[in-house]
Design a protein that fits this description.
This protein is α/β, with parallel strands linked by helices. Helices cover 42% and strands 11% of the residues.
């Protein structure tokens, strides 16, 4: 079980906000009950935390990356400190690395681990990692969706890694990834289904080889290749991030003894 720490903590924080006046620790208590439940089903559990935004290669490429995000509310930051301490007491492996986001570390572990990995996060960026051995548990209101490769492909109409190409064209307002102005999700998906990647799409565009039905998009695409390629790099999870590969270190409670 590979957990996107801030994603999970934020969900619990805002879900329990109204009860905070009665119990300041309500968020951490609820989240730890979730973690304790996982210990019955998983032998290896790890939480991953984002490194500083300014330290990442994405910020170096595009300083406006995630620039629309606000800082953590003070109570949420307090919960973060409490949660990390409680996870350490429980023997839960945690990882944070300057230069990388939690997604990168989760991707590196999931693709290297010699078994099944379950990514716990509502972040759709992680969909690109789905494979025969990698699944994503997507929390929603009152339920959890198990996303696998087959469900993803039937839902989105592209292969998991092509999700990066779709985002390269349509952009992502939540991460402040620009994309190509005027290209929305439906058009982005159609173009990726037809041309496979952003690189091949622009190769066909430059050689005037777009299908007749798609030539109406030429004006929007023209001159936007560098923006699209930048957006793709910003969206791509770095599965080569340096990680701990002694898998026993991820075993629940292993380093308490």
């Amino acid at each position: 079980m590979l957990v996107d720490g801030f994603n999970l903590l934020s969900r619990y924080y805002f879900a329990t906000e109204r009860r905070r006046a009665q119990d300041p620790d309500v968020t951490v208590k609820g989240l730890l009950r979730k973690v304790d439940g996982w210990t019955n089903d998983f032998t290896h559990i790890a939480f991953f935390w984002d490194g500083p935004r300014e330290s990442t290669h994405r910020f170096a490429m595009f300083p406006d990356y995630k620039a629309t995000r606000t800082g953590l509310p003070e109570p949420l930051f307090d919960d973060y400190i409490k949660l990390r301490a409680a996870l350490t007491e429980r023997g839960i492996f945690q990882s944070e690395l300057a230069g990388y986001e939690a997604d990168d570390l989760m991707g590196a572990v999931a693709t290297a681990f010699p078994g099944e990995s379950f990514l716990y996060s509502s972040d759709r960026d992680l969909h690109q990692l789905l494979s025969a051995n990698v699944y994503q548990i997507v929390p929603k209101k009152g339920e959890e969706l198990l996303m696998n490769r087959e469900l993803f492909e039937s839902t989105y109409g592209v292969e998991p890694l092509q999700f990066v190409d779709v985002k390269a064209l349509q952009g992502d307002a939540s991460d402040n990834i620009p994309g190509v102005r005027g290209i929305g999700p439906k058009t982005a998906t159609l173009l990726v289904q037809t041309y496979d990647t952003v690189e091949l799409l622009y190769e066909r565009l430059k050689n005037e080889q777009l299908l007749e039905a798609h030539r109406k998009y030429s004006k929007k695409l023209d001159g936007q290749e560098q923006v699209a390629l930048l957006s793709k790099q910003l969206s791509l999870i770095d599965v080569h991030a340096p990680i701990e590969t002694d898998w026993e270190a991820y075993r629940f409670g292993s380093h308490l003894f």
